[in-house]
Design brief:
Length: 355
Amino acid sequence: MSRWLSPLMAFCLSFMLISTFAPIVGITTDRQIDFWALWLGTVFILALPFIYLEFALVKRAKTTALNALMSLTREADASMQWRIAGWLSVIFMPFLAGGMLANISHIGLQLIPTSLPENIIFAGLAVFAFILSFIPRQILSILSIIGVISSLVISQVFGTHLTAWHMTSVTFVEWGNATLLALVAGGLGLGIYAQSSVNSLNSTDKATPLVMPIWLAQVLAVIAFGVFAAQTQISEMSLLVTVLFGAALLIQLAKEQLQQRQVSIVLQYVLLLAPLFIWAITLLMPVLNAVMMLWGLVSCLMYAIFVGWIMKISHLRKALNFSSELFYNIWRIAIRVIAPLSIILALVAVIMGRF
């Protein structure tokens, strides 16, 4: 599989996930210089080390994240309970796909009048996304990039009404939102970018040439969202179609991890469809949105603790093969100390902001 597939997926999924989480955290059209500077800072301080983390897991085990934890816990003489992190992540993927479809369609229904109930519309979209998940990943990625670019162009052509960039005071809740957007809205904590680069990882000694394009693609997605707003029927429809492809990608990636873990076909469908279709209960959307944010952060926290404190140092050093010991030490501090503390603070901030 092409080594550029993962950066392409990183740009598309990051843009779609940001579009999903932006209304939840209140930055759909508001452009605060201080918040966006904080957001970009967390993309550098947290997202970049986390991409290295996921590549270290997959490169060491030479398989996808869910399967990798089987061997990695044995190598580290760690409790089998750490394998729960992999299961949480793989079940979170269809749940996140459902959240994308539910939130984007909910906003779209405010601009596009229809007599159909919202839950029926969501169910139709979810079924279509599940069917699309059987399309080859390269085709889905190409459709995704076409959709993202089309959404960006349409939003400009048909009017993007954004507030002027301005300064505000940074709050504790905004710190949590920035961490959420950098990690969960970046598609991190799932191992999906390393999953799509397994072949390239196994044929190269260093992780950096594969990690940096993915990280730069995520930064580009943040910048692209700075000029985007779906406030017309056509722009919202374009975004909804695009999100269908993104949801299909997440379902496909989760399905691949379950298949490699040799989960029975019946259980695969249960684990994929139940988290996806729970969003059809539209009355629960505020609660499900809160669960989506907290679940994503908890998955990231578990991976940060496992890699930073449980895995053997020698295995990590060999898997990442940094050009300098200094870079490795900086990365290790980021994963062992900065990432867990930041995620814990973000969890507190999200709870304070939602409840």
